[in-house]
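#struct-pred

JT: dropping the chains for the assembly here, can someone run the whole complex?
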Amino acid sequence: MYYIGVDIGGTFTDCVLVDREGNHRAAKTLSTKDDPVPGVLAGLERLAGTVGVDLATLLERAERFGHGTTIGTNAVLERSGARVGLVATAGHGDALAMMRGAGRVAGRSIEDVFSVHGSRLPAPLIVPGAVVEVPERVDASGRVVVELDTGAAAERIGRMIAEYQLDSVAIALLWSFANPAHEKALAQAIPAVFVSSSAEVSPRLGEYERTVATVLNGYVGPACSRYLSDLESRLATPLLVMQSDGGVLPASAATALGTIDSGPAGGLIGVAALAGAYGHDHVVATDMGGTSFDLGLVVDGKPVVAEEHVIDQYTYRLPHLDVRSVACGGGSIAWIDGATGGLRVGPASAGSEPGPACYGRGGVEPTVTDADVVLGLLRPEAFLDGRMPLDRDAAVAAVGRLATRLGLTAEETAAGILRINNMHAATVIRQQTVERGHDPCDFALYAYGGAGPVHAFGYAAESGVREVVIPLGGGASTLSAYGIASGDVMLHRELDRSLLAPFDGPALATAVAEVRDAALADLAATGVTGDAHVEIDALMRYREQLMHSLEIPVPPTADGGTLLAGFDKEYVRRYGDGGTALFQAVEVFALRARVSVPAGIPVARPELSAPTGPAQTDVYWPGHGRTGTDVYRGTPEDMITGPALVELAHTTVAVPHGATLTAGPLGELRLKEF
Amino acid sequence: MTVWDGVQRGYIPAAELHIHESLRLHTGTADVDPVTFEVIRYSLMNINLEHGQTIQRLAVSPVTMITRDFQPSIITESGDLVFLGPYLQYFSNAQALTIKWVLENRSDNPGIEPGDMFVSNDPYVGTPHQPDTIVAAPVFAGDELFCWVANVLHHSDVGGSVMGSFCVDATDIFTDPPAFPPFKLVSRGEVRRDLEEMFLRQSRVPTNVHMDLRAAVSANRVATGRIVALVDRYGADAVKSVMNRVLDAGERTVAGRLAKIPDGRWSHRLYAEAAHTGDTGIYAYQITVRKQGGHLYVDNAGTDPQTGSINVTYAGFSGAFLAALTASLTADLAGAYGGVYRRVHFEPVPGTLSCADFPAAVSPAGIYTMETLISLSGAVIGKMLACAEPDVAALAIGPAHPVFYGLISGGVHPTGEPFVATNADNMIGSLAASPAGDGVDFGGHFWIPEGTASNIEELELLWPMLFLYRRALRAGAGGAGRFRGGRGMVEAGIPWTVPGMAAAVYMDESFPKAVGPFGGNPGSAGHFRLKYGTDVAGRFAGGEVPQDFDAVAGAEAEVEAKGPMLMMGADAAWEWTGANAPGFGDPLTRDPAAVRADIATGALPADLAELVYGVVPGDDATRALRAGRLAARLASAVPPAVAPATVPEDVPLRRLAGELAVAGRDGRPEVFASLTGRVVLAPATGNFKDGCAVLERPLPDVAPEFAIREGRAGHRTRYREYLCPVTGLRVDSEIIKEGDEALHDIEIGAGR
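RK: done, full complex below.
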């Protein structure tokens, strides 16, 4: 029997299987964008080939089939989603359009934030004009102030659906998370379209973000449902869908909103699954690809969760694995800032089209990948297993032009490009760890993605991390698919509830029980059975610190005192005990339950191809100059000492002077002493 | 003799600072290669951003954490700005001024040592107004003062006669909140409890201020630690060299752009009403920018003498101008603006509203005079850029809101705790139209890029009130133009769960202040309305949420521009508006398709298409209607003194903006001309208005939405249109106080 994971990315569709012994196989095919199903089937066919069966047999033997889709993300970015109308509380239907006045800048890079020129609001998500404001009102305490006339409201909503030819309606009323009665009544009264209710989708304070979440869910929902049922109809096993919070859910229970940006979550959940087996509690997970660098953290064995997320300048709140993306990848373009004379790298990227100069597709600007080629870290003839030879001369010419202007050699310039790109990556690593009160040197750094392993030694050293792991070795390039195959069924449930310290024990216990029961009910509704495991965090802050939130675990035996002590400890750990003092009351403002049913899938061991080598090449190592360097193809069996390169199917691991690279018992590669 | 010492008059540092010899400054430099340069530059920029993020997380007042009314900075050892964050931009030089003053006045006593932090909210030293409190920390490398990190936070209340510390009734600084010259709050790492309590004692909400003050201290510590680590790694000389090069690069950048602007002189004037509670006067602010060679010279001549509470000091004047200039001309420097400042020279006239001497009151400046000056600066900079080469002309961004509309109310929670509710929902904002196109609806404010309005639910959680609506303003005459200004917001609320509260600060303008550039309509006026004894509760019970303030029963208060505190009972209701931002160019030249698109999306009421834009169904009918309107304008206008001459066909016209063009041979502008009519308006050094037909009306007569009740200041204003005497198209327009002379706005080629 097989556990299968399929991850659709912008360029490749990755398919992974793990069998009951933990044997791991992977296949990569080109994605078919307009209708992803053929690409998925082609990938599965190739995956079947790796274990010597046909597609039908593979599907029959699939005990579990996990899937991560970009349908939702693409629908938003390309504005190809459903025709959505909005139902709002009387007087507040413009909240979505007004975007709290921050719509021009939300989620944009720092340079863009300063520049008002040419900045604009994003295209609307709802059909312009399709808003019904319903006379009803609930106040901050959840008390009904103005009763809802459900019949009259439903009639107006019905007329809006007909007039604007809507296939989706989003209901987001003020304070509905405190009292969902009106939203529930409307949801039941609306005729057959895709209905999303804010108290279900994102039951948290803040009507703008809650409305965005609800509208997004409605915007991507119909297409997601169609696609997932189409795919599921071709399988012999129920489809499990990857969600951005790091869990998988049956297709019938998965939320459309949760599929948005769920791909990076798959990678992080894969890392978390492997980290336990590899013996790491704290991991910085880094995925460097062609255009972006994605970073997530595993702390105490658990992936770190965040709330606020921005897609195309729309901000919403949903518990999701905190994977931050910055524009520093292989395609990042190097340039000279005329005013300072400094060398800059990014944020502009050559992407995959035209791509770096060395791709030979017409790109002329020097990129990070071109710098790799100039240094010799990437050998043109060995790129992607030799399937895509690179144009070394083009890389040298592109970097050389920059070098001439800087008065440096091409190699010095290339080394400089890497140093700056690595610094960008290391800055995010440091911000993410230090911001949470951790020291990067307590973390192992996992590097994957096409450009991760070749640069990891540089950005790991820059951020103070001491060990780099290439998870699954040669399987690192399909790590997200592995995470999707192995992810637990899991969901989050939040309860917005204000409790002021000193906490009243019974009130706390009641709230904890309420969120726990709600989470278990949600799980039951998915139809998934098995041993459910519930963890509860309190979201805490000093009262009125609305932009702040600390997650404090609530152990089963917790009383108010231990919770408060936990908050104090965490606050001091992050901000020190001097500067911030305790003049204001501490509050719990929400509780978050995570309920999961462990997948129980054995830890994967990648297939090891017979290593060859070492051959010899010349590499310009920053700080050492040009040095004869061993090149291995495939995972070497014995420990190797740098300088060396290890070329894997989709990436290269760079082992600098004095560093060691060892294959672990589970097929991972460990880089130390860099 | 009164000097610019920060005591009797706003502090202006001399070129050479007088620093006590016991304080050693680090001035070393080193060669830094282009790669290391970038590594250090990027690190410094990120240190400043993290500084801002730390403040945001730890602060508790919504004005700080959500509105982003704060600003972190990195500043050189001698007080020059290296990096500003994407927060409130008129703090551009507040920290630099304060630090220079500290260097000159505190370096011997009590001394400047590692681990110290100085606090000041003295407007005569460096802050725009007293709630904006600066905390500055010296960073040492060894025994040398290496640089400073500093922040400014707006505190919810720092005392004074009015809740929230915008003391519109103040007549001098002794009724304003207390102003503390720089004092050492943190000494060698220890917070001085005596001084901290002295500062907190002035506040109506000391707990809130305490949290925010400690957030400022903590954030400075974080930034200091990061800089020390950077210095340890790369060496003080290398890091300092990077700071210097960042400053030099800023200067080079602005110099390159100034080179594309002809020498000349540009002026703009903007009026405010009511100098203090009970006053109905109209007051003029004027800024003139002279560009000569690679430098700008900025003065405020023409501004009325200081009076009431509508003043700022030098810090405010220069801060506002620099904020507008950098946002427009050098936004690509992303906060590394210190080098730009080297090319801007202020020649302020003291004793005026925009450069007041002690003891003028300034505390309301944060919502009035600072915005007035930013709007005014944007307008004058826009005129200057209109004369520049196209790539620099495209950087004009139009005048900002001239007031930060809002409502400050206060009272007591049901629990008995006092609250001061500073409602900054006008962060929703709206951007003015510009030569590039329409302003952005709900586009915030360019001078506070990351500013965000609160959610209604956040406000209802924090304060005992309930909001009937918060919705978009529809477009109208206010903000109309060839390109229309962005749309703003309007909201209404009632006290909730309490027997009442007080409205301490509110804005009700009797006339719009910011005119649209080059013939655009003014933005809309901000309004505050209050009704007593309303039927809201009854309508709630009847299943209705009132949505039309006119239809709310009750007695309406006669509100003044800066009226006294108004008590609001449980059955009161209020409404206040932000504003639609000014338009650009003559509304009669707006593309009819754009007008129809605005109707289709609901942005513009259908009946205003004809009234405001002369657009009716059918292109021919629209052309005919517009032609009739233009003719009617000329029929009512006073023609120019000299009969119009036409620019010969073989002389090329170059558009400056809208209908204003210059003509001349060999690329040298010789005369101003109208673009469509090709009428010679004036020599390039003369006033183009002299050649225009002039149509003047009381401003309340211009459009129904500008109408106001008798006796208010707006009736003493005029809207003056300068028309091409042949086509009737607007070349420019002015809002002008009855009896004031027309302004000479643009002189090209004018030297010193």
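JT: nice. Residues 332-419 of chain A form one domain. The longest strand of chain A covers residues 489-500.
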